[in-house]
Amino acid sequence: MEIIIKPTEADVASLAADIFVQYLNRESVTLGLATGSTPLALYRELIRRHREEGLSFAHARAFLLDEYVGLAPQHPQSYYRTIRDEFTAHIDIDDAEVKSPDGLAAHPGEAAIAYDQAIAAAGGIDIQLLGIGTDGHIGFNEPGSSLVSRTRLKTLHPQTIRDNARFFESAADVPIHVLTQGLGTITEAGRLVLLATGEGKAAAIAAMVEGPVTAFCPASVLQLHPHATVVIDEAAASKLQFAEYYHYAYDHKPAWQRP
């Protein structure tokens, strides 16, 4: 993994936007989008570049990482609705090209298989955006998830439910089941870009970057990916033993290799 440590959340968002622009300059691109609080600064920066600098998404398609089971697409907390409210409604991407798992499917297992097939039919994801949970999950691949898992139905860890309760009236309102891309599905993307900010993510980042590859820290699977970039702020990097080296390595990277 390439580890890039920036001073602030705004710096993380700006550098991540630079990475995404490289892919958006292609004739066509398939994006993997994530929801949650961490990507918001990046989405705001991409929206700004679209409005002020002419950055276009008209040639892009997108797939979401996951969706709650039991929430209608227009429910305020569904990820179908959230990604539109926070990002895609503010850019020039065709709404029909923004796909998400079917959280209302009568047979979630079949819907999961169909979602994997849709990603494959699109030629795979070129660049996948990721966040990380406090327990090391990516997507909704909770600790113990198979490192080769496919899109499937998962039960949320109680900690994840507590973390997500801030978006609902109470923890009791958070759905306990989701459809999520699996770790095997995620790592088939051409490039992975994981963002993390704040001291609350520091332990998870340390486990992912400097711990062993293990199902108990699902994000550690990024260690096996040929092109994974981790962009974090100083607070999220605060538990890394080799933070000084990561700074040094990035500062001395040839200009043509930087994002």
From TrEMBL:
The record's keywords, sorted A to Z, are: Allosteric enzyme, Carbohydrate metabolism, Hydrolase
Name the reaction it catalyses: alpha-D-glucosamine 6-phosphate + H2O = beta-D-fructose 6-phosphate + NH4(+)
Active site, UniProt feature: 66 (proton acceptor), 135 (for ring-opening step), 137 (proton acceptor), 142 (for ring-opening step)
Give all residue intervals belonging to the Glucosamine/galactosamine-6-phosphate isomerase domain.
22-223
Q: What is its EC number?
A: 3.5.99.6
Q: Which InterPro entries match?
A: Glc/Gal-6P_isomerase, Glucosamine6P_isomerase, Glucosamine6P_isomerase_CS, NagB/RpiA_transferase-like
Q: Which GO terms describe its cellular component?
A: cytoplasm
Q: How does its record describe regulation of its activity?
A: Allosterically activated by N-acetylglucosamine 6-phosphate (GlcNAc6P).
Q: What molecular functions are annotated in GO for this chain? A: glucosamine-6-phosphate deaminase activity; identical protein binding
Q: Which SUPFAM superfamilies match?
A: NagB/RpiA/CoA transferase-like (SSF100950)
Q: Which pathway does UniProt place it in?
A: Amino-sugar metabolism; N-acetylneuraminate degradation; D-fructose 6-phosphate from N-acetylneuraminate: step 5/5
UniProt site (Part of the allosteric site): 145, 152, 154-155
GO BP term, pick one: glucosamine catabolic process
Q: Is Hydrolase found in the keyword set?
A: yes
Pfam families tied to this protein = Glucosamine_iso
Q: What does this protein do?
A: Catalyzes the reversible isomerization-deamination of glucosamine 6-phosphate (GlcN6P) to form fructose 6-phosphate (Fru6P) and ammonium ion.
> Which family is it part of?
Belongs to the glucosamine/galactosamine-6-phosphate isomerase family. NagB subfamily.
Q: Name the chain's protein.
A: Glucosamine-6-phosphate deaminase
Q: Which organism was this protein described from? A: Corynebacterium canis
